[in-house]
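Sequence and structure are no longer studied apart. As an example, we show below a sequence and the tokens encoding its fold:
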Amino acid sequence: MSNAARARLTGAMQRLATGDKRALEEVYRLTNVKLFGICLRILGDRKEAEDALQDVYLNLWRRADRFDPERASPISWLATFARNRAVDRLRTGKVRAGSVPVEAAAELPDAAPLADDLLIDAERAERVHGCLDTLDENTSDAIRAAFFGGHTYAELAEAQEVPLGTMKSWIRRGLAKLKTCLEKGE
């Protein structure tokens, strides 16, 4: 996990411990995909995983003050919290058919992206869009349409009513400026 991503999640966890409702929203947004994946792999049922995830965040709201950033990373602590909640549901027998035996819960692979990877991807996307905003409008629009919209250079040139070579030059120069901007931000 990048230092910035870890700091953001740690800060949200610490604000949550003081009762900040917005911090709970932030923690949820940053971690729900990963934690849901853990619950789903253990419980084997989407509805059960949703119920377990709800339990995780309800208990987190009450117990956020127990998080110690000196002892564990926030995502590791939350993943353990989610795993334990899902395993507890298995042990109490409150789970519908389709779940895995409790003994198999520790062996289930988690193919979902790690929450820290999602945070890093979000930071990179934010940096890319920030750098795109520094380009002139024609270049920025052309790069966005080509790389995010899937349009060809020919389609873009026709839409902008410019020669194909001009469009290619705008994008090539824009990508060079984008690269410089991104390298400065690393």
